[in-house]
Amino acid sequence: MGFLGAAVVLLATLSSAASVPPANTKRQVSHLRDKYDFVILGGGTCGLTVANRLTEKFPSKTVLVVEYGDVVQNAPGFFDPPTNWIQPIPNPPPTWNFVALPSPDMANRSASVQVGQGVGGSSVVNGMFFDRGSKFDYDAWDDVAGGGKDKWDWKALFPYFKKSVTFTPPDPATVQQYNYTWDLSAYGGSGPIYSSYPPFQWADRPVLAKAWEEMGIKHVKECAGGDKEGICWVPGSQHPVTHRRSHAGLGHYANIVPPRPNYDLLVKHQAIRVIYANPKGPKRGPPSVEIKSLDDGSIFNVSAKAEVIISAGVFHTPTILQRSGIGPAAFLASAGIPVVLDLPGVGANLQDHSGPPVIWNYTTPYTGFFPLPSEMAANATFKTAATAAFDQTPATGPYTFSSGNNAIYVSLPNITPTFRSITQTIRQMAKNGSASAYLPPDIRNDPTIIAGYKAQLLAIASLLENPKSPSLETPWVSSQFPIGARVWSFILHPLSRGTVRLDLASHLAQPILDYRSGSNPVDLQIHLAQVRYLRKLFNTPTFQARGAVEVGPGAAVAGSDAALGDYVKANSFMSFLHPCCTAAMMDKGKGGVVGRDLKVHGAEGLRIVDMSVLPFLPAAHLSSTAYAVGEKAAEMIAKDWK
Fold first, then answer.
1. DSSP secondary structure letters along 400-448
2. What are the pLDDT digits (tens) for 550-581?
3. Are residues 106 and 498 in contact, defined by beta-carbon separation less than 8 angstroms?
4. What is the pLDDT of residues 370-419, one digit of tens each?
5. Number of other residues whose CB lies within 10 A of the CB of residue 370
6. Which residues form the Glucose-methanol-choline oxidoreductase N-terminal domain (predicted)?
7. Taking a C-beta distance cutoff of 8 angstroms, is the pair 593, 583 a contact?
8. pTM above threshold 0.90
């Protein structure tokens, strides 16, 4: 039949499966079984991965997934019709839109964070930028993860990155047009999530690519194989024929045909807390789960015979634990919640990528490039043709593009010759204990939190000293609007730490986020080094030939640490939507919440599987890591219950 013909048949099947919620989608308690083997709280990227694999592995064991949102019938890509690149897609899937408390060390600016609210979680609404961290990130994670036999380094995670995804190379004509590169040895799996490159790039993409080369940054053939210092092509989480979004709600749920009889998904219900009713408390599990219907407000309990797995995400996992009496004792007391288990790390250790832009204008007429993003807004004929091309099989044209496929990743030693003074400062603050002053006030005196933070700082210092471990990411797509002529500076390993806490006025309301960005002053030093490095663009022959004139920060500002610091604080994008780490995998004596086995310290029959278990951020967007963690967790759980 050939690839294209088989793909058409497959797409017809998947479209039919995704258009109607599967029969195992439940909406009220009367539709549930009396008891389940596994209860998973959260139907997002990790939760659905685990549920899919467990129901596949154990046909006789029952799994219930409890999801706050609903089934998302049609999840558009980051850039799908009818948007024109400037205006967002109308009627997007529902999200939680958080605004964190102001960060005093960043000019009292607040992070705005968007999280998917529906079956598939943030995989339904993210930018589809499907990169992996470097092998050094995961090796460092394993170094601080504490005692236990399960490994979380690159060697241990790499098979699950491969298992989670089906990567399809682009066709030869597209490769020749855009010079795509890849290495199939980084993939080789046949997972339910698709990864591919689009048959389109904006015409001015090579301008920045050439300038990066002139700065001495080298192209990397494949950045998903553990090494990503350089200029990278990054695939998108999109189908290779339709170029529609590929997400967990499809791959790990709706496309399971026929629906498995042992797999139930309860939508439009909030997981309130886990309850240890046994007199022995959390030493005797698994707990039951208290659940609230969002339709009628009724509250009921569900029991698990084997385990409860919390997979509610970085913001909601810690709040479920806190409502359960699992968390920092002092905070629980202030909330009027009886302490079931004192774990100071619950809701601590919040991190995210952030950073400022470097901005310029071109004085030489920006002509000779077609198409540019402006065509989508100014050229109705072009947009109509783009829409028609997207509806073809296979899809072509601008709407196959998603959010972009290009980025540079650069290590601190390749950014600044003073990198050792930065890492020495980090090591000194860890050694002499001064780092604790930069932690959130309510936990900065807790010896376990201090010990864990010290371990993280030392690990990050080693990452920052490694010339092959990226500390800066700069993605790019075009020099045209709406972004304008600018590049962003992502700080990939921030040292500042925030918190996620219950709203004391209403425990069932959305949590309070305190990002505390910039609270560790070393972050500002790294920001300054990165901005000054990116300003080297203006010395390249490519930028000079195009008459690039710097708008921000400008030579005068960049010449002063104080002025440049003010620029960073006033202009940073406070969240690139990669929050993590609020139930970290470390020893309990270091403020950890879960062990290497993902089991909550001291809580029998309770695990956590989502991005809250990372001890610190990898140098990557988090979607592909979430799938890999879900795959590895499912295999670990299956092994325990075989």
1. G-TT-SEEEEEEGGGT-TTHHHHHHHHHHHHHHSGGGGGS-TTTTT-HH
2. 999 999 999 999 999 999 999 999 999 999 99
3. no
4. 999 999 999 999 999 999 999 999 999 999 999 999 999 999 999 999 99
5. 11
6. 36-353
7. yes
8. yes
